[in-house]
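dude i think i finally got it to work??
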Amino acid sequence: MTAADFLTAAPLLGDRRPREVTGNEWVSFPAIDLQSGGLHSLTVLHEGAGGLLELAGLAASGGRLLVPFAYTRPAGTSAASGLPGGGWQAVDLAEFRWDREGEWLPGWTADSADLHLAGRLLAPPGHRGAVYRLTVTNRCPADREVVVGLGGSWAETRQTLFASRPVSGAHQAWYDEWTQTLVLECRPGLALFGWALGADRPLSTCIFEAVPVWQAAADSSLQLGLGLEATANPALPWRGRLGQRTAGAATGACLRFFLGTTLTLAPGETGEAAFFLGVGTDGDGARLTLVDLRRRGAAALHDAARRSLAGRVPPLDPARVRSLLEAVGEPVSQAEAEQAAARLTALFRRNLHFNRCFATGRALDTGRLALVTSRSPDYYVKGVFWARDTFLWSFPALLLDDPELAREALVLGLTRYVQHGPFHACYLDGRPLYPGFELDELAAPLWAFDHYLAMTGDHSLWTEPGVAEGLRLILRRFRTLAEEGREKAADGLEPELRPLRDGRGLLLPTFLDPSDDPVADHPYLTYPNVLAWRALTGFARQAEGRREWGEERRQAAQLAEAVQRGVREHLLCGQEPRRSFAMAVSGDGGGLVMGDNPAGSLALLAYLGFCDRTDPVFAHTVAGLNRPGNPFYFPGSFGGRGNRHAPFPWVVARAADLLAGDPSALKFFLHAPLDDGLACESVDPRTGAARTGAAFAAAAGWLAWCLYLALGQDVPNPWR
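look at this
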């Protein structure tokens, strides 16, 4: 058995229900239920936990952690009327209709026989929490009392990174009279996580209890608001009410709760109640955060969230969309081109926001920025750092969207993450998680450094504390990697990694390829070497004129030139006029490996500036990627190339095709459903729906960036 036989293939996705997502840098809502407006889970980054903390609802009640509810009765009715439950009836809502403000703030409307309801969930930037705005319109000819609120079941807290495991410890809930909030806390000993719920007006009811999971599963209707009066009702099983201090759930139990506020509405009148959610490392931090949200007000927070989304990036260019569609034989009118550009702009912006809010975030326990593949539990390797995913895929879109955040991310890459960044994957705090050297991950932060300076001209980055040391470590590792026979362990590299030299040409080795699979007997790959050339060349260009970097600049330029010669000498195959780039060459330099790695595609060689898109060798290479002659090309309406890791069309590869000038990639993204409009790892070639790697936030950044480069207006791209 060889190293190549130890393949960690991507798990296949089963049937997936459509959902909405939203979040900010502190809190994520990765699965919003389209049938109820409920939240299946809530996640936060937590350095102490090494990844994500995930709060999950009771599976027997549809897995919903938090659900909006409404109850109604004729105005003036009271418990003394003798009607069951004081005359309150749950509002039975018809089909939910969804929209998205700014492609990121999900909202819904729904109707009952007597009422029209609407909801909007937003996580305002800069705040450790969220707001759920609920509005109700009375369509009855008489006055109505309506209680609107949030209810749910907190069944489990999970520590989540590559895998999810339950956090053993009690869940506690209490009504806090001082802040008028329902406070919930996870305590595996000391408090680990807290969250709080409250409203912008006095609560009329707050009901909570702890029950065994089996009991909650047997009574899964979630009719939490029955008996909404705050007075005692002996027939009601709920034990926690306004004025009662706590309810606790040990492992194997769940907390169920409901809090609501009453609106009295005349015929045709509309009323609103806003519910706030605050998070913290304990209940105190959560409830005090909620007080701050309440003081700012739902309307002001909503306006701030809208402003944060507005005007970041202009829409895509209908003229370019029309030109690419016509290139694949689909003549379109100006109106059709504008419609297509609008659809692609919505795709672009949604993935841009998903990248910013799910591939980066603040750790709740430290407040520090963390860089991850995805903050969604739906992705199969979530809550961890990959240098490639962050700096090659997520970073360009982050720089386009939020330059200040991109700068902070790059500084982290060159300081906190630089020591172990080239080795497959790291924990949030930079500790090594998954060993295995990857050449593209060594090059990624150096490429991002050049990209940032080229796009911004912000040369203050050179003097940022710790950045110079990080750059020198990367450059030293490149030199060490290029030297035959030198002990490499001192620089953290595997000693068995040997360069391939021939005259003045050089190829650098890797242990894992760009899809994180072992390369065994062909460790010299074209794309990672071209990326290394690009990163070293870019560094040398940026360091020009900086006397303190003179020696490093000279060595980087020499090494880049040697790698460029090595690629030209060892990784071209065939004869003119049908020469093309090979994917890799074997350890003895004699056996070329044909094909393509979708996570580090040959279609990117022109994007990296190694050749021009009109270069016959590049053009012939690209022409062979998406056709049946490629054993890992998967034909279909949404065809594309994959590999053994995920044998389906890869989204990042089809995005790379946009940069290579392949117009068929535009049709792919115009029509593919992907993962509810979000980037995923791979799709079904027949349907275009997610097949592996749902909710892939870093890939969403790459998709947004490629769409912008191919179709944007006045693109400030130094490589175009």
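The chain is about 30% helix and 25% strand.
im so relieved honestly
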